[in-house]
Design brief:
About 5% of the residues are buried. The protein has a single domain (about 5-70), classed as Arc Repressor Mutant, subunit A (Orthogonal Bundle). The protein has four helices and no strands. It has helices at about 5-15, 20-30, 35-55, 60-75. The chain is mostly helical and about 80 residues long. Helices cover about 70% and strands about 0% of the residues. The protein binds zinc ion. Zinc ion binds next to helix 1 and helix 3.
Length: about 80
């Protein structure tokens, strides 16, 4: 695993969403790579900030709304089969 892979997985690693094997791999790399250690710490700090904001209950619901709108706009019968 290289630093680029670690950084692309850092989000999931911090959120503990990785499977045991992958989590171990990232952990091993981070333990011996100061640059990635810093990266993970940075991601962690960002997460904490977001969580703090969420706790305050002022999280904008715009993304959820946009997703809902996209789903409503999706054409019906896309998966309809003939017969
Ligand atoms: Zn690294």
């Amino acid at each position: 695993m290289n630093c680029h892979e670690i950084r692309s997985m850092a989000d999931a690693y911090v959120d503990r969403e990785l499977k045991g094997l992958e989590h171990g791999r990232v952990e091993n790399h981070v333990r011996q790579c100061p640059a990635c250690q810093q990266w993970v710490r940075m991601v962690q700090r960002t997460r904490d900030t977001v969580r703090t904001k969420l706790d305050r209950g002022r999280a904008p619901d715009r993304l959820t709304e946009r997703i809902r709108a996209t789903l409503n706009d999706a054409p019906r019968g896309t998966f309809e089969t003939k017969g």
